[in-house]
Design brief:
The protein has eleven helices and 18 strands. By secondary structure, it is an alpha/beta fold. The strands form four sheets. Strands 3, 5, 6, 9, 10, 17 and 18 form a seven-stranded mixed β-sheet that branches. A six-stranded parallel β-sheet has the order 13-12-11-14-15-16, with helices on both faces. A three-stranded antiparallel β-sheet has the order 2-1-4, with no helix packed on it. α5 links the parallel β11 and β12. α4 packs across α5, α4 packs across α10 and α7 runs parallel beside α8. It starts with a strand and ends with a strand. Its cofactor is Zn(2+).
């Protein structure tokens, strides 16, 4: 079968590799769509970071790794002992690998498992291959009427869903999203799904500002031209927003978030910083009792909640996040490189492993 594999820094190739073999308790999925994630771009441009350079403790595999951890497909074969799934079932795949036994796994905080890994990096394959075989526990059924391209959005939406739940915001709250990239847009969708009173987005790129408006943001501002903290105070009862979601991974974004959040509010850090973050006014966090919360990997329950929220219409029109589709052969030139060089034009680019 054909697969897009990460061999090393700026070295991603379409390779011909054997189809994966079923194991007892596993299922074989024919992949349909896989999203290119910001972490894939980090891996491509400055990695390897997540992909193992020596055999991974869980999978025993190392570079080259099949890419793709945001993906959906259709079950084509069942392994021995799998009786609760059916061939032909549409599915999204929960990509987090863990040992299932440690304290953190029991708490469903899989990202803190010392042995953790990810499909699309650590072995067992990924969504940017034609097929994958994986433990049935990773399988989440999709409704028959949910398109598989939307199914590929479940994973990035789950990242945002987890962050919104950590913030404990609800209909009476005002929130700020700083950065309207893929995770920022996903956060807008999830805040609206939780009924948040107003969602303010801070983003300097005109194209991304439009993406935020299309996602349903209440207000979209350019922090290079407008006083975002002052606007937040004006909209939010003179106190500032209840929660600010930092989705840009740069110093300026954190500074805007800190200046915009009210006393006893929270800053939720979803992004990955490539450069050190300087907290210029740490006493402000202390004096105003502001919480700074890191948000990383979702639980299986949250992954399913996203599927249910899409199916019920709580998450509205997530397909608007899809701004490009590329073949496996074009994934590097028209996917990875375009997202790195022209990132303002896109939210989510999907890869078709069969094209």
């Amino acid at each position: 079968m054909r697969a897009l594999r990460f061999h090393g820094n700026k070295d991603v190739r379409v390779d011909e590799i054997p189809e994966p073999a079923l194991r007892p308790g596993w299922v074989k999925v024919k992949n349909a769509w896989a999203g290119i994630c910001g972490s894939d771009l980090h891996e491509y441009s400055i990695g390897p970071m997540n992909a193992p350079t020596k055999p991974h403790i869980l999978t025993g595999e190392s570079l080259p790794s099949v890419l793709g951890h945001e993906f959906a497909g259709t079950i084509v074969e069942l392994g021995e002992g799998v009786t609760d799934l059916e061939v032909g079932q549409k599915v999204a795949v929960f990509p987090v690998l863990s040992d299932h036994t440690c304290y953190w796994c029991q708490e469903e905080t899989y990202g803190l498992c010392e042995k953790w890994g990810f499909l699309g990096y650590s072995g067992y394959g990924g969504g940017m291959a034609q097929y994958i075989c994986i433990d049935k526990e990773a399988i989440h059924k999709l409704p028959d009427n949910m398109p598989l391209d939307v199914g590929a959005l479940v994973e990035p939406l789950a990242v945002a869903w987890h962050a919104v739940k950590l913030s404990k915001v609800g209909p009476e709250h005002h929130c700020l999203v700083v950065g309207a990239g893929p995770i920022g847009i996903a956060t807008v969708h999830c805040l609206l799904a939780h009924g948040v009173r107003s969602v303010i987005v801070s983003e300097p790129s005109p194209a991304r500002m439009q993406h935020a408006k299309d996602a349903g943001a209440s207000y979209v501002l350019d922090a290079t031209k407008e006083d975002v903290p002052a606007f937040c105070k004006k909209i939010a009862d003179g106190y500032g927003v209840h929660a600010a979601f930092e989705c840009a991974g740069i110093q300026a974004a954190f500074d805007v978030a800190l200046a915009s959040v009210r006393g006893k509010g929270a800053i939720i850090n979803i992004s990955i910083f490539e450069n050190p973050l300087v907290i210029k006014t740490p006493n402000l966090i202390n004096r105003r009792s502001i919480s700074y919360i890191g948000s990383n990997i979702y639980t299986r329950v949250e992954f399913q909640e996203v599927i249910d929220a899409i199916a019920s219409g709580r998450i509205k029109a997530p397909e608007k996040m899809i701004t490009g589709r590329v073949s496996l052969d074009d994934a590097v030139d028209k996917g990875f490189r375009v997202l790195l060089d022209q990132k303002d034009k896109h939210v989510k680019v999907l890869v078709d492993p069969w094209a």
